[in-house]
Write a structure and sequence with these properties.
single chain, about 70 residues, Nuclear Transport Factor 2, Chain: A, four-stranded antiparallel beta sheet, about 60% strand, elongated
Length: about 70
């Protein structure tokens, strides 16, 4: 079972993406590696044609989220 605060982080990320208007979500992927580690990949296309890619490698430790690595591309 995924740690509660890591699960909440991923739930909040998904809710934020779902609430966006005027975009097409090309990719939303949560890769659960262990109970305290996950990768998040998001690809959003805007009506203007712009593209936003978000990749995060996160770990839950001592009731907080630690970003092991991230990449944001616009």
């Amino acid at each position: 079972m995924l740690l509660d605060y890591l699960s909440k982080y991923l739930d909040n990320a998904e809710a934020s993406v779902r609430n966006l208007e005027g975009v097409y979500v090309e990719r939303y992927e949560e890769e659960i590696l262990t109970v305290n580690r996950a990768n998040l990949r998001i690809r959003i296309r805007f009506q203007t044609g712009h593209l936003l890619e978000v990749n995060e490698s996160i770990i839950g430790e001592k009731n907080r989220i630690i970003h092991l690595g991230y990449r944001y591309y616009f």
